[in-house]
Write a structure and sequence with these properties.
By secondary structure, the protein is an alpha+beta fold. The protein has helices at residues 105-110, 176-185, 187-195, 220-233, 245-265, 267-272, 289-298, 311-323, and strands spanning 3-8, 18-22, 29-33, 43-48, 59-71, 74-79, 86-94, 97-103, 128-133, 147-152, 159-163, 166-174, 200-206, 239-242. The protein has an eight-stranded antiparallel beta barrel with strand order 1-2-3-4-8-7-6-5. It has a six-stranded mixed β-sheet with strand order 10-9-11-12-13-14. The termini are far apart. InterPro entries: E3-bd_dom_sf, ERCC4_domain, Lsr2_DNA-bd, Restrct_endonuc-II-like.
Amino acid sequence: MAELLIAVNPQRDSRLPYLVRLPQPGGDLLFRTSGTWPRVKALYCHPMSLDEWPADPEIVERLPLQSCQRRGAAIDVILTRGRENRSQIVFTTTRGRETVFWQSPRTRKQARPNVRTPTARAQGIERLQILVDAHERYAYTFNTQQVDLVKQALPCGDYAVAVDGTLVASVERKSMSDLTSSLTSGKLRYQVGHLASLPRAAVVVEDRYSQLFRNTFIRPAIAADNLAELQIRWPTVPIVFCETRQLAEEWTYRFLAAAHTWAVSEEAALQRISPVPVAAPAIDTGPSTADVRAWARDAGLPVPDRGRLRPEIWQAWREANDAE
């Protein structure tokens, strides 16, 4: 039976203390890496020549392989043991250099795509007020955008915007595990049905659609059929798959900002708004960026013509107004 071999790197001063030898049809692959399994983070793997495999290796683990097949830019590694039995050797490019990472399903979820989300305001809104459901655990913070978060009970969804106390858009957030469990229990059907009563609504999933077919909790075909049925029954509520939590948060912000602009700028939209009242508490959002910029210029402080103001400018404004 083929085995994945993990040995001690004979170069004791190396920052990659282990050797990983992976059998492949065209010849074994050998890497230096920092751990024996990608449990809490993806492990960087430095490719090596097979000639560098020690003549008398100090074997740490011998892991029997059920499968070890290359699929495109990744090698799927499946062990015969019950737990921690799946991982991938991924060949990718980082900053123009070819790199290799060893990742498990758990660490893949935590990985971030090689992108930077924009910080420009959505729809040009100076500060967007987003309502966050009081029952939402580990809520989005939108800390890269200028928003005001108001936590309160929402009739549906996890994040919403309101105009004149009326809910105009809402987003239901789902992790992949939450999505599959709510599909199985039928909870998602009721949630999407309730969202459909709003003028604008969506479900955002913090994962790829492809991961639906790797799930062992529910048959992939059943999950895919149920999702397709929900989209046919309630076509006004899109189900959007984003690669990571970071991208799902960014998408939610952009969606709610667009819905807010739509609701306040189109007369026809205002007539179609569903009468779902939301008792949004009044909050003091403070001055706008334009107000503080004008004050800073009058005070002789250097500020840019556009964009965000430095924290010390805001602090100076607060100190000046507190003194008054």
